[in-house]
């Protein structure tokens, strides 16, 4: 099973830079980059909530389950 992170797609659709999102939600650009690349092992609900609020989206817009 794989969880695919589509954060870069949503950022492009909203025309928001990663740097700006990181500043808005209060995390480092490095941590946001790890999340965007799919290398993150976990995400806090508070971070997911902040991302969804900032991008006006649902968690399912950012995270997708893909069967291997």
UniProtKB/TrEMBL annotation:
MF terms in GO: DNA binding
Domain of life: Bacteria
Domain HTH cro/C1-type: 13-62
Protein name per its UniProtKB record: Helix-turn-helix transcriptional regulator
Pfam family membership, one: HTH_26
Gene3D superfamilies in UniProt: lambda repressor-like DNA-binding domains (1.10.260.40)
